[in-house]
Amino acid sequence: MLSARNRLTGEVVEVQTGDVTTEVTIDVNDETVTAVITRESAEDLEIEEGMELTAVVKATDVMVRSD
Amino acid sequence: MLSARNRLTGEVVEVQTGDVTTEVTIDVNDETVTAVITRESAEDLEIEEGMELTAVVKATDVMVRSD
Amino acid sequence: MLSARNRLTGEVVEVQTGDVTTEVTIDVNDETVTAVITRESAEDLEIEEGMELTAVVKATDVMVRSD
Amino acid sequence: MLSARNRLTGEVVEVQTGDVTTEVTIDVNDETVTAVITRESAEDLEIEEGMELTAVVKATDVMVRSD
Amino acid sequence: MLSARNRLTGEVVEVQTGDVTTEVTIDVNDETVTAVITRESAEDLEIEEGMELTAVVKATDVMVRSD
Amino acid sequence: MLSARNRLTGEVVEVQTGDVTTEVTIDVNDETVTAVITRESAEDLEIEEGMELTAVVKATDVMVRSD
């Protein structure tokens, strides 16, 4: 069990592979969630479009905005 | 316009005020998103239960998990 | 499987509980690793001195220093 | 003196240079610690395999996991 | 209104575009502030040398050092 | 030498001590920079109003905003 508070599960809709980092875009209930992870992690998890993936975020990394 | 990629809008369902930090919990499409911000920010934004708030997260702070 | 690259396992040697956040100190091969997580996470994981715990860190959150 | 709580010293075992970021892997007591820093920082510190380097992490960036 | 406490406004003096991330350097009162953001964000904000830009940092991401 | 790109030196104008974390406000060329660090770090650095202190931020933790 991981301490990180936030988990949002969805389907990978785009993978953009760089030399060191990879950008992964996930569709979560019609909202887009974007993660930048290491290319090695993306390869270890065998991330590809269409697979299910959960975005995980530590609560101290979340800001809020009022409109 | 802010560079942070991720924005998730919902309703504040819980506010827990500490001495330096405040924990804000937002219901986003029946998913729970939790933010830890400074107490001063929470006061400046006049955060309270029931108001609409957007969680904002930088893409480099998002991890992913496969099951 | 989580994308975060860094995992360091050790024994909890100190838990300091605050109102919103909790500081957890882990002994990893005689090095001290300190985490600040939400108090709720600490309670959910039932963290207490003497238990084994793994510190997890995203690679983009690691700096380096040369001497 | 820097406020960041966590320092782990070891030997650089791999350097992967990208266009903007560089990934540095350090062997710390047979554990692997991976950092993603800017390429400019890597060049300023003249990071190369075999040199000693200390990984530095702020406590609020450390999560914990129980098994 | 965004909860992030720190805003530093200046002029963009350098833009280094990578495959996934872009490094933006801003001159703030003769101090240099460097941001690594996604290339997509840099394109969406149409960042280029000479434009005015504000660096934004969450307080939990700021360390301090005494000399 | 530390890899973190951003350093902003100024005078401490406010210290707010919590149970686990401490908020430190620094005046940097008439801009306010706010850091949330562990209370232990604040005690180790003997932070108090009027002393000179440098805010340190990793480039991947900096966002940008255009107006």
UniProtKB/TrEMBL annotation, chains A, B, C, D, E, F:
<dbReference type="GO" id="GO:0015689">
    <property type="term" value="P:molybdate ion transport"/>
</dbReference>
<protein>
    <submittedName>
        <fullName>TOBE domain-containing protein</fullName>
    </submittedName>
</protein>
<feature type="domain" description="Mop">
    <location>
        <begin position="1"/>
        <end position="66"/>
    </location>
</feature>
<keyword id="KW-0500">Molybdenum</keyword>
<dbReference type="Pfam" id="PF03459">
    <property type="entry name" value="TOBE"/>
</dbReference>
<dbReference type="GO" id="GO:0005886">
    <property type="term" value="C:plasma membrane"/>
</dbReference>
<dbReference type="InterPro" id="IPR008995">
    <property type="entry name" value="Mo/tungstate-bd_C_term_dom"/>
</dbReference>
<dbReference type="InterPro" id="IPR005116">
    <property type="entry name" value="Transp-assoc_OB_typ1"/>
</dbReference>
<dbReference type="InterPro" id="IPR004606">
    <property type="entry name" value="Mop_domain"/>
</dbReference>
